[in-house]
Amino acid sequence: MMSSRTSPPSSRRGSSTRALLVASMALFTDNLVVGLAVPVLPLLPSVVDAGPAWTGVLFSSYAAAVVVAALVAGRYVDRHGPKTPLLIGMVGLAAATLLFATGGPFWLLLVARTAQGIAGGMSWVAALSLIAATTSFEKRGQQMGIAISMITLGVLVGPPLAGVMVEHFGTASPFLFAAAVALVDGLLRILLIKDSPRVADDTSGPVAVLRVPGSTSIVLVVVIGAAVMAGVEPVLPGHLGAGSLTIGLLFGLAALTGVVGNPVVGSLVASVPSRLLVGVGVAAAVAALLAIGWAEDMWLTATGMALLGFSAAFLHAPATTLISEQGFRAQPPTLGGSFSLYTLAYAAGLAGGPLLTGFAVDRAGFTTAMVIAAVTLAALGALSLPRLPAADGPR
Q1: Where does the Major facilitator superfamily (MFS) profile domain lie (predicted)?
Q2: CA gap 87, 81 in Å, rounded
Q3: Fewer CB atoms near the end CB (10 Å): N or C, the chain?
């Protein structure tokens, strides 16, 4: 069995730095491609011809593939280490971007979207497991915070970059650019991962992690952190009736506060009780939703969006660190299972947030929907906090 207790300090520092670089680039590249695809795919002729229902299938195929790949990657990472899943993710992402660049037919785009989801599920589980396996407890929260920030940065950069490139160079250009970024990312994965730390020969998976006391509370925190931003994304633009630039700036503001906040909050995980950090995150998320819902002026909406990104940092950074601790506590230990569970919870939040706000806006209006979302998040937070486990301390 391997854990973060076993590595000598000097070798751990070098491997930890390489792990952070590889994991951050992997997460950034994956989410950059996600961001590039969002504004471009619906405009491709083959997608337009397929109609709204099949467009929904195209976009949902990514999430379905992420879930399946995350489960497979978790077991493989525990038994053989994260290097191979990272390389599979690289190949899948490069293939997906080149297939997207063809523009169709629709079935080929569906294959590309599925390949993108497989790459994402593999990369997320392997990248976060790599950081947890090579980083001491004192630094783990900060390293996880930096890696999670790269997810936000990729999503932030992707859509506006795609818009500019499509306008000047055509619809294939964002995906050709993404393929080049994926190539650089792949070279880093090959050159910088010298070994492939594994956790156990007898893998146990996400169910074993879920059985560890406190894991359900962490899952709820991950769901809240993913749902809070995802729930606002589909309903705020229609409510404001503003131009694309204004909407982009508002979501960019939320992403920016998240990018800045994640490593800062992560650095506090080793010294500040996780219940306090998560409690601040839940309170900030509730306040943000209420501010956005009741805002009559753009400055208050902007304040709420900034607070929304800030709240996500207080939720994701502790949860990402705590879920790795739960993996070490499982019998047998399983980092792959930990981050499979994390990825599944994140996907649940991404799906659940828009469903909640979408139906609520349709039935009760925007302001009431934001109040319902705030109350729901407050209730989930109240359920999670009492049983949220404490971190073990230095490993």
Answers
A1: 19-392
A2: 12
A3: N
Q: Domain span at residue 215?
A: 204-390
Number of folded domains that form the chain = 2
Tokens matching residue 153: 């940065």
Question: For residues 278 and 385, is the Cβ–Cβ distance under 8 A?
Answer: yes
3-state helix vs strand vs coil in the chain, percent to 5? 85, 0, 15
Q: How far apart are CA 42 and CA 36, in angstroms?
A: 12
Quote the Cα angle for 104-175-161, to 5°. 125
Q: Is 53 exposed, middle or buried (0-12, 13-18, 19+ CB in 10 A)?
A: exposed
Read off the pLDDT of residues 152-172 as tens digits, 9 standing for 90 and up: 788 777 777 887 788 788 888
Mean pLDDT of the region 99-121: 89
Cα–Cα distance measured from residue 104 to residue 41, given in angstroms and rounded to the nearest whole number: 10
Alpha-carbon distance 117 to 120, whole Å? Answer: 5
Q: Is 273 a member of any domain?
A: yes
Position 395 in a domain? no
- Give the percent of the chain with pLDDT over 70: 89
pTM of the model: 0.75
Amino acid found at 234: P
For residue 328, give the nearest of 316, 320, 315, 337 by alpha carbon.
337
Q: Which two tokens stand for residue 45?
A: 């002729």
Same domain, residue pair 211 and 286: yes
End-to-end Cα, the chain, rounded Å = 15
DSSP state of 391: P
Q: 271 exposed, middle or buried (CB, 10 Å; 0-12, 13-18, 19+)?
A: exposed
